[in-house]
Amino acid sequence: MNFPGSGIIKGLAVTARNMAGSYIEKDRLTTEQYPEERPTLPENSRSFPFLVFDGEDPESGMRCTSCKICEKECPPQCIYIVQDRDAAGKALKRPKVFDIDIAVCMSCQICVEVCPFESIRMDQVYELSSYDRFGALVLDKPKLLKSNAYYHGIHPTEAAETDARLEADRKKKEAAAAAKAAKVAAEKVVKAAQPEAQP
Question: Over the stretch 61-111, which tens digit does the pLDDT of each residue have?
Fold first, then answer.
């Protein structure tokens, strides 16, 4: 049987238990002494985009082909891409300029979802404040390029799935190329075996 004020007493007991537990149990310590103590971010946390490259060289291992889909789909239009060209003016499959204005970026992750080459991913870096209102808030290609090993370090599950998908696509393309080469070789053999038409 409840007596008047029993709900208040139960509530105060829960509060007292939680307060006492926060001083005893380390898992329940809610105050982090930032910046001396850095928070452990969950794997699915995100801040702003970055570009992934494979191997050791950022330029040659860059996954981005400057297809500009992310630039077109970005809601606040904070991505700016210029395609690279060779000396003859022929377009190359890589960006010469890739800028993201993080003052405008809303971390919606649409650029990640529309990228067909798995080249743009979301970072976990959150300490990007600056006294410079313009230059420091625009991340250019050298600042955006980060290795696949870095990507595995911050998003291991997602990175493993991405690598498996890319490897499956690579094997599928290699099998298709091998089948095409075998077909061409077979056609050449058949053509060579046929007698030439007499005049």
Answer: 999 999 999 999 999 999 999 999 999 989 999 999 999 999 999 999 999
**b (16+ CB within 10 A) / e for 97-130:** ebbbbbeebeeeeebbeebeebbbbbbbeeeeee
Between CA 61 and CA 125, with CA 59 as vertex, the angle to 5 degrees is: 85
* Six token digits for residue 141: 């290609």
Give 138-170 pLDDT, tens digit per residue.
999 999 999 999 999 999 999 999 999 999 999
8 A C-beta contact, residue 107 and residue 122: yes
Q: Which residues on neighbouring strands pair with residue 120, listed in sequence order?
A: 51
Q: Return the residue matching tokens 């105060």.
A: 12
Distance of CA 86 to CAs 57, 81, 83, Å? 19, 16, 10
List own/partner pairs for 173-180 with CB under 8 A and 24 or more apart: none
Query: CA–CA separation, 98 vs 49, rounded Å?
Result: 12
Is there a cis peptide before residue 76, judged by omega within 30 degrees of 0? no
Which of 101, 56, 98 has its CA nearest to residue 81? 98
Backbone angles phi, psi at 147, to 5 degrees: -70, 160
Q: Which two tokens stand for residue 187?
A: 């056609």
Q: How far apart are the first and last CA of the chain?
A: 115
For the domain spanning 49-148, the CATH number is 3.30.70.3270
